[in-house]
């Protein structure tokens, strides 16, 4: 089958206008993590009208639709879109801006949902492929790990997949430009907390106290240099301090009994993640020991690193090249510092995650900001990518 071009999708004006209206309706009615009842209802009703078998309520508000190709084949793939919004007050001034105070689609999940709905419709109209496609509409990507919850709720038990794929818009990058890479592409997003416990005391007589501030300061200073000596230059890791709490602002002459430091750690491979977790505790204990300060370390693993399978990246690259041309595909993109809970799915099933440019014009805003808006011109590009991916995966018997 010939590749599907975005221009051919855009030429179906009624189809694109309908999907644009759906996208903007979802944008106007944002729902945050595990509250995507209205959005899930729109998705499920759409898939049911297409004649698919639809499973509602997986991972609380997730939806899965299943489509069997009209040619014999045993391979099964999953295509995933996220549905949730963020707790941000919208400032776009758009006619379809959020109608919910304090919530908005500031990451483009409204567009991701509409793109996969459109691909599902085109594939249902012409299921000329060998095998099965599961359309996975996931809740709670933003911070609460909806992918993990769907898996725990039986996602891959009920819908086994040989491979899974996901797409995310890429703001402030030329429209349609595709980036991805094999191996670690998105970082693990972990949080850590170190508490230094002393006794406190009078600021004029520190020798009569156990002062936790000195080892706390040494610990912070050691984080950057330790990374360079514990993590190979060919790998990446970032440790940042985001919160320091000790004492009272009105009592600068009192040595506090406790210093609390919190931060984030970003890594791209499981082994480096293990190294960083151990290193943070070791640095804290080492700084505290000479001062008889007690240390308590809490390291919370939130989202794992997103690790693309090389084989599935090759399939994604074929689909992307067919969609936008090889010159607009970067197969060796710089690892991204953000985290993405599709990583949980990739821990269970091999697959690939790509990002597609959302446009870089003067009005282009970054994700997670009050002025961000998904570019509707990306809809036919994203739909064409999904169709070409299904053909790359399942087009041959």
Strand order of the largest sheet: 1-2-4-3-5-16-6-15
Number of strands: 16
* Series of H and E elements: HHHEEEHEHHEEEEEHEEEHEEHEHEH
Q: Which descriptor suits the 3D outline?
A: elongated
Largest sheet report: 8 strands, mixed
The CATH topology of the largest domain turns out to be Aminopeptidase
Helical amount among residues, as a percent range? Answer: 25-40%
Task: Count the DSSP helices.
Answer: 11
Radius of gyration, taken over Cα atoms and rounded to an integer in Å:
24 Å
CATH class (first level) name of the largest domain? Alpha Beta
pLDDT averaged residue by residue: 95
How many domains would you count in the coordinates?
2
Strand content: 25-35%
Secondary structure category: alpha/beta
Task: Please explain how this structure is put together.
With 397 residues, the protein is an alpha/beta fold. It folds into two domains: 6-186 and 305-394, Aminopeptidase (3-Layer(aba) Sandwich), CATH 3.40.630; 188-303, Alpha-Beta Plaits. 35% of the residues lie in helices and 26% in strands. The strands form four sheets. It has an eight-stranded mixed β-sheet, with helices on both faces. Strands 10-12-8-13 form a four-stranded antiparallel β-sheet, covered by helices on one side. A two-stranded antiparallel sheet has the order 7-14. A hairpin with a 3-residue loop joins strand 1 (53-58) and strand 2. The longest helix is centred in the last third of the chain and has 19 residues, at 270-288. The chain starts with 5 loop residues before the first helix and ends with a helix. The relative contact order is 0.20. Pfam families: M20_dimer, Peptidase_M20. Its cofactor is Mn(2+). InterPro entries: Amidohydrolase, Bact_exopeptidase_dim_dom, Peptidase_M20, Peptidase_M20_dimer.
């Amino acid at each position: 089958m010939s590749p599907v071009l975005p221009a051919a999708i855009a030429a179906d004006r009624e189809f694109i206008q309908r999907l644009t209206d759906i996208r903007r309706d979802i944008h106007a009615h944002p729902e945050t993590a595990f509250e995507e009842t209205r959005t899930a209802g729109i998705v499920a009703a759409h898939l049911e009208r297409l004649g698919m078998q639809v499973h509602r309520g997986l991972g609380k508000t997730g939806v899965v639709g299943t489509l069997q190709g009209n040619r014999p084949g045993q391979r099964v793939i999953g295509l995933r879109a996220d549905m949730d919004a963020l707790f941000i007050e919208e400032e776009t001034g758009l006619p379809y801006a959020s109608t919910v105070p304090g919530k908005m689609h500031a990451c483009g999940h409204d567009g991701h949902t509409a793109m996969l709905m459109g691909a599902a419709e085109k594939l249902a109209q012409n299921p000329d492929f060998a095998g099965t496609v599961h359309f996975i509409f996931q809740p709670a990507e933003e911070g609460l790990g909806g992918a993990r919850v769907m898996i725990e709720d039986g996602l891959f038990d009920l819908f086994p997949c040989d491979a899974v794929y996901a797409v995310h818009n890429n703001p402030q990058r030329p429209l349609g430009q595709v980036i991805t890479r094999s191996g670690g592409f998105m970082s693990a997003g972990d949080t850590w907390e170190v508490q230094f416990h002393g006794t406190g005391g009078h600021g004029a007589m520190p020798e009569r106290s156990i002062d936790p501030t000195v080892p706390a300061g040494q610990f912070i200073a050691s984080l950057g240099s330790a990374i360079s000596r514990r993590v190979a230059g060919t790998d990446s890791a970032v440790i940042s301090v985001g919160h320091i709490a000790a004492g009272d602002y009105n009592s600068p002459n009192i040595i506090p009994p406790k210093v609390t430091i919190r931060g984030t750690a970003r890594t791209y491979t499981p082994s480096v993640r293990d190294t960083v977790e151990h290193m943070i505790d070791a640095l804290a204990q080492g700084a505290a020991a000479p001062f008889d300060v007690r240390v308590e370390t809490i390291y919370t693993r939130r989202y794992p690193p997103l690790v693309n399978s090389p084989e599935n990246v090759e399939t994604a690259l074929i689909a992307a090249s067919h969609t936008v041309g090889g010159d607009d595909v970067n197969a060796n993109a710089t690892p991204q510092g953000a985290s993405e809970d599709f990583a949980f799915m990739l821990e269970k099933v091999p697959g690939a995650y790509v990002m597609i440019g959302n446009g870089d014009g003067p009005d282009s805003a970054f994700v997670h900001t009050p002025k961000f808006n998904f570019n509707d011109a990306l809809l036919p590009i994203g739909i064409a990518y999904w169709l070409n991916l299904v053909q790359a995966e399942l087009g041959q018997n």
